[in-house]
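Thread: Modeling a multi-component assembly for a lab meeting

Hi all, long-time lurker, first post. My supervisor asked me to bring a structural picture of a complex we are working on to next week's group meeting, and I have zero experience with this. I have the sequence lines for every component (475 residues in total). Could someone generate the structure of the whole assembly? Inputs are pasted exactly as I received them:
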Amino acid sequence: MTWDWNAVGAFMPHFWDGLLVTLEALALGSVISFALGLVWALLMRAPTRWVRWPVGAATEFVRDTPLLVQLFFLFYVLPEWNITFSALTTGVIAIGLHYSTYTMQVYRAGIEGVPAGQWEAATALGLPARRTWTAVILPQAVRRVVPALGNYVIAMLKDTPLLMTVTVLEMLGEARLYSQQHFQFTEPLTVIGVAFILISYPASLLLRALERRLVR
Amino acid sequence: MSADTNTLDNPPVDGSELIRFDKVTKRFGEHTVLDGLDFRVDSGRHVTLIGPSGSGKTTILRLLMTLTRPDEGTITVAGDRLFPAPGKQVREVRKKIGMVFQQFNLFPNMSVLRNVTEAPVTVLGLSRDEAEERARGLLDLVGLADKCDQRPGRLSGGQQQRVAIARALAMRPQILLLDEVTSALDPELVAGVLDVLRDIARTTDITMLCVTHEMNFARDISDQVLMFDSGHVIESGPPEKIFGDPEHERTREFLGAVL
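Re: Modeling a multi-component assembly
Sure thing. I ran the full set together rather than chain by chain. Output:
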């Protein structure tokens, strides 16, 4: 096995394409998981169990089944019901939905971590429920959960190669395509491996710094 | 420090019955905290609740603030019944009552000024300017005019508690509930908070219900002292009477232990 710098050079244009797709999937997946996770967390605090029970069961189901299975389901089964998305959209939805069942637990812990005295002070001042949530509880809860959410972003980054299985050409997809066309596996796979480290390691350092700042 | 009447423009007081508990019982699991309690407070009175820990004093304040519900009995504030009451009526009663907590419970995500303006703006519908003017007046009253833009976390416990007092007063409540407001403070910070409260008690006719272990403070500000034991009022009267010549054996024991 020899290392061929020319192969690295030839792969790089494909790498950049793949990187862009990876980051796009990651960004959209994160946004969906942050938003949906908050929705699940709030629904789980609904006064009636007719809301809590179905939400709890559905999210438990999603959390306890593999992302890859969900991805295949969305990609191969939904079209049979005439629901069709692009491969990338399908992938983003799958990742966002899957991780929202984790972020909801992060939000729950964040919300429960706000001291009871904050609710009592809001009640004593007569703040309406919606205002109590938006002005008092959530700002404090979100502050606590930013580091934990960030860890899930890094986990999501490492799950984006799964999208390759539904034809999305993210980094691994590009590397595999190039490898198969040129019979050179070492260089493309090494490049994307290094790329994953170069993204996730600084990101985790950043999160640790953020954690020190935000969580007192 | 002086309270100009503009800053603390409380509703006029006619000495009529403002708070009324009828046969109120509150249990926590097996433990009965209040047992068929009857008591009344007329408007403008400064009432101090004393008694051993666990005798139900704080529960009375929490019931009035609708932070907890009674198991039996009725509570009436200014003629409006609580529990059960329509949401609108509960909100009206909450507007009439302000509460200061042992642990301050300031909102750490807001500046000191925002802590004081938040409820006047969102609940009373004041404009931001009006609310800020009112808040600055009150923060001046409690000696913290220079801390408006700070986060509460940067203040001492005593300063935080004075902000909490300003926050409660910004709603211009008829009734102020003080729940062991100095218990969480370092000893050297207690005096500053009590001075502010003495000032408010002296210069306004806001009705005050105060749970405290500061007997000198109770003697200073109150015109009625209720001695609690095991969920009942066992003795009540003016402070001179309760502190000077208590009738009940339990009162004598309690005061002997705390004074």
